[in-house]
Specification:
- Helices cover 37% and strands 14% of the residues.
- The chain is of the alpha/beta class and 368 residues long.
- The chain folds into 2 domains: 126 residues, Aspartate Aminotransferase, domain 1; 224 residues, Type I PLP-dependent aspartate aminotransferase-like (Major domain) (Aspartate Aminotransferase, domain 2, 3-Layer(aba) Sandwich), CATH 3.40.640.10.
- The protein has a 7-stranded mixed beta sheet. Strands 9-12-11 form a 3-stranded antiparallel beta sheet, covered by helices on one side. A two-stranded parallel sheet has the order 1-10.
- β11 and β12 form a beta hairpin.
- It is globular.
């Protein structure tokens, strides 16, 4: 028997973790015009109506907000044709991703996930201390749906799927969503992250929620106001769940006051102004086409993104390209994954951002 006391006060899965701040402004960027194309943000500000709505509730910030969003929830429920009690809210869909993993996977239990997926998911896996089965993506970066369901085992408690996926921008087909819905056992929570849902619909893609409504087993879908509604700084996301039990479990692991006091008012205004969302989606599609065409003109083959970002094999180590572009005040990112180390990822911006990206990329590649 070892009677030696534990000297490390934090759990093993949280020890010696690095920290990376994606929004950090580096010394060489201070007081410069930065083309911020690395965080999949909307390049346009909220509409004047949204800003006015925020101003109208500013005087209430001495009070805690109602995290159930009583004004917004009925609007969303009516449009999505779901019961109000099956919707819950979080500080961006990011908070909800963690909560969904926490309520379904105990330490050491299994979850199944695509290998190439948003980097934040890796942090979530550490938080819940899960036994992770990472299913390799197809050679083109797409999620391998059949391999995902084949990887489900007796101890699997959560299956994570994303459409459209970050960092590829690819969406699942209706047939693929139906396959994963029908072939995920009823004792496994099927979690579908749709942070880029509006972009998929704009591109003519399927609505995962409508398909999952027919599923017999448990499910949860997350969406956000960060992207198509230009409200990333407000931090508001929502989950639509198959049962009230899942909703209440998510609320249990979240903070009682997890939303900020302006979030609901801003979101209500944005939700009620579909014309502005349409403007954002239309402009995004235009700039995405310009980026894709520009990369193709240079001889590259971008991934088939429907989102507000594009990933592309640039035939050189992506970290080197990213560093060189940032030195030119154009912030882009990598894709990650051993098979995709030469892939860069860039968010869609304004026309000026697109010009800066394409012009500077040509100059950077001339030096390699």
């Amino acid at each position: 028997m070892n009677d030696k006391p534990e000297t490390q006060p934090i759990r093993t899965n949280f020890q010696n973790l690095p920290f990376w701040n994606p929004t950090k402004i580096y010394d060489h960027e201070v007081n410069k015009n930065i083309h911020r194309m690395d965080l999949n943000e909307c390049p346009y500000p909220p509409s004047p109506n949204v800003i006015k709505a925020i101003q109208n509730v500013a005087h209430t910030l001495n009070r805690y907000p109602d995290g159930t969003c009583p004004e917004l929830t009925p609007l969303v429920a009516e449009r999505l044709d779901v019961p109000e009690e099956t919707i819950t809210w979080g500080g961006g869909s990011t908070q909800l991703l963690t909560s969904i993993a926490e309520i379904s996977v105990a330490p050491g239990q299994n979850l199944v996930t695509p290998q190439l997926v948003w980097k934040r998911f890796e942090g979530i896996y550490k938080i819940v201390d899960a036994n992770v089965t990472s299913v390799p993506n197809k050679s083109n970066g797409a999620i391998d749906i059949e391999a995902m369901t084949d990887a489900i085992g007796n101890d699997t408690r959560l299956l994570i799927c994303v459409t459209p996926n970050n960092p590829t921008g690819m969406m699942l087909t209706e047939q693929e969503i139906r396959h994963i819905s029908e072939n995920t056992p009823e004792n496994v929570l099927l979690f579908m992250d749709e942070a880029y849902h509006e972009f998929a619909i704009h591109a003519g893609g399927p609505d995962a929620l409508e398909i999952l409504k027919d599923r017999k087993g448990p499910w949860a879908v997350t969406r956000t106001f960060s992207k198509a509604y230009a409200l990333a700084g407000v931090r508001l996301g929502y989950a639509i769940c198959s049962s009230v039990e899942i909703v209440n479990a998510i609320r249990m692991v979240a903070s009682t006051f997890s939303l900020n006091g302006i979030a609901e008012a801003a979101a209500v205004a944005a939700w009620n102004e579909p014309e502005y969302t349409q403007f954002i989606l239309d402009q995004n599609a235009k700039e995405r086409s310009r980026v894709v065409n520009g990369l193709q003109d240079m001889g590259y083959n971008p991934m088939e993104s429907v989102t507000n970002f594009v990933s592309c094999d640039i035939k050189h180590p992506a970290t080197d390209i990213v560093k060189a572009m940032r030195a030119r005040s154009v912030r882009i990112s990598t894709v990650g994954g051993n098979e995709f180390v030469n892939h860069i990822r860039l968010s869609m911006g304004t026309p000026e951002d697109t010009d800066a990206f394409l012009d500077n990329l040509k100059k950077v590649l001339d030096t390699f």
